[in-house]
Here is the input.
Amino acid sequence: MKLETFGEFYAYYLTQHADPTCRTLHFIGSTLVLCTLGWVLATQTWWGLVLLPLIGYGFAWVGHFAFEKNKPASFGHPFYSFASDWVMWFQMLTGKVPFSGRLQTTAA
Here is the structure.
């Protein structure tokens, strides 16, 4: 599947996050990344930067492998996937993407 724009990719990305547990694990991981980054910056505990990808990808990959039963989009599209994770996080925070229920989306 050829995805040329970020909008096309994001529509596809949402289809890969239809399971509510997967989305919630992404949200938790991303929120913990922000908290950890805040802690690192506030305390200047620079080794804590190593934790950021472990926390973020750890939660996301558990969501994909255990609940969504698919391969994370970051494997094929790392930059768009990283950006999409933050768009989805914000949309979940603001209620545009729900925490519960399966998403009924189609890829562009």
The CA atoms of residues 22 and 67 lie 6 Å apart.
